[in-house]
Design brief:
- This protein has 72 residues and is an all-alpha fold.
- Helices cover 61% and strands 0% of the residues.
- The longest helix is centred in the middle third of the chain and has 26 residues.
Amino acid sequence: MTTYVPPEKQAPSKSFAEKAQGAAKAAGDTVKEHPYAAAGIAAGVAAAVAGAAFGAAKLRGTSEDENSSQGA
């Protein structure tokens, strides 16, 4: 549950750059603490992007491999 904090007692808002730097530092610290988990997540993201690119290429029919339905 969130409690109300009057505007005069709230911390000043951070700029986008300050928020991004804080997020990058937190991500870097997490990767240092859990390198195998971070590597697994990166591999999963890479596989998902590659799969999406492959699927899009198949739908567009731009594949030039031997098993293409447009080939031989």
